[in-house]
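From the shared-data thread, chain only:
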Amino acid sequence: MGDNGIKLLAIDLGASSGRVMLGSFADGKVEVEEIHRFPNGPVEIAGQLHWDVQQLLQEMKQGIAAAAGRYGPLQSLSVDTWGVDYGLLDDQGELLYAPHHYRDQRMEGIASVLETALPPGEQFKLTGNQSSLINTVYQLFADLQGNPGLRGTARQLLMMPDLFHYMFSGVAAAEQTIWSTSGLLNADSTVPSEEVLRRLELPAELIPRLVPAGTVLGELRPALQEELGTGPLKIIAGASHDTASAVASIPYDSGSVGTGRISGLNPPQPAAAFISCGTWSLVGLETTEPVLSDEAFACGFTNESCFGGTNRLLKNITGLWLLQETQRSWTEAGEPLTHQEAAELAVNLDRSKADIAILDPNDPLFSTPGDMPLRIESYCIRTGQPVPQTRAEIIRSILESLALSYAGTIRELEAITGRTVSCIHMVGGGIQNKLLCQLTADATGKEVIAGPVEASAIGNIVVQLTALGAIQAPEARRVVARSCTPVRYQPAVSNYFYPQ
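Structure, as tokens:
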């Protein structure tokens, strides 16, 4: 296949919004264009939080039809989403009920039961995943405990991107990068963990066949081809976890990727860390194999699969969710603030006269929807810190807290791996907040290389290009580097960060 005029679709579905993105590949470069953006969020059904899958599907179809009508024949389509959530199909291949949202609280009552059978440390050694109430293994255990009848009616479990790929193609498969977030696979994400399934009495038959990122599943269902006017475009299981897609887009400098073995380095090689910055912040670096040390577990790191078979050693940090929820609270109070206005307030704040508190972004107080400014006030009172009084002070507290959290995580990565982090690649929508990028450089003392903004969509696209045979896998990041111009932030000497 030549490299002229290839057009394909990346559907990038986040926890707060989704986008249908057109990718165009020509002359060795990728360009992306937003075709359709739509909101996403939980819906409450009978006191529990769910995803409105049918509405999301309609939004995706609207974007696909618009792209086909505007640009003509498309080669392929792939969906990437957040991790851990899933839908259950019955023996007719139909959804049993709307998939639960990871912030639903049904797991709280069963966590102690699960962890008695499978303690967190053993979960980590077996699967590489840090234990968390939101993990698929906790959710599935809670579902089967709360509704034993599911054992007789549920036939397959499909993670969210797998579910949409199934809706589009009729082919059910378990893509490895998304399943690597589940707590149900072995540590290298190649097969289900028999020990986990046995200990928790989870049915192995729920797990479809595992496929690597970049697998062509089939073609768009004929009825959908006719409905959407697309022709027979291919459905590809790409790097279906949005962080895996984002990391696939990182245009590492030559020699800085840092995927050498953790053990046996003589001398240890420098490595480039990454921060995928959005509603969640994922801070980590790539390794050739999972890192299962006691130190990694104690520091809260998890291991997930990358496109090409490498490993992501990373920590999940509650990211711009704090600011998003704060802005939502202000909007509901009749005082809306755009992202640009919020950034300007924080930049123009006289830091020497401000009441700035340092928050732990992962404190449980901040984990669920609610009045975030009130929760920040409560946290400050609990921790004996000054309460931010103005909107600018609240925003600045959030951004500085994130930067300091990133810095602490980078130091932990260096200690665990024995490698010096040479620079930090920040990708994702959060890098549009230039102050956050600069604060991160200042807090870490590392150069921050920011870009691309559309990391998940671009990573999704280059993985599809490898599946189509348009490029070879080792070329994917060079394609991104030719296509995007990063912004570099140098650390500045600053006196406003709290002592470490």
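The CA atoms of residues 79 and 161 lie 6 Å apart.
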